[in-house]
Amino acid sequence: MRGGAAAGDGPVLLVADEPTGNLDSEIAGRVLDLLCQIHAQRGMTRVVVTHDPEVAGHARRTMCMLDGRIIADTAHAMGAP
Predict the structure, then answer these.
(1) Model pTM above 0.70
(2) In Å, how far are 11, 12, 67 from 46, measured between CA atoms?
């Protein structure tokens, strides 16, 4: 199925907790590119948890938390996936 995953076609959600946390900038860039490719090719929703504004800048939507509560929820017009 193009543009999304039908039931039984595999996962529809990818969760990445600090996927670039201990990586140098070159490898971190490759990881972010891979996450974007997965989204583009499989239509998979990505949930990325990060403290890095550079990583968060790749998101179409960001949610900021403080003390276990969402304090900001922002949609971004993105040129990149």
Answers:
(1) yes
(2) 11, 9, 23
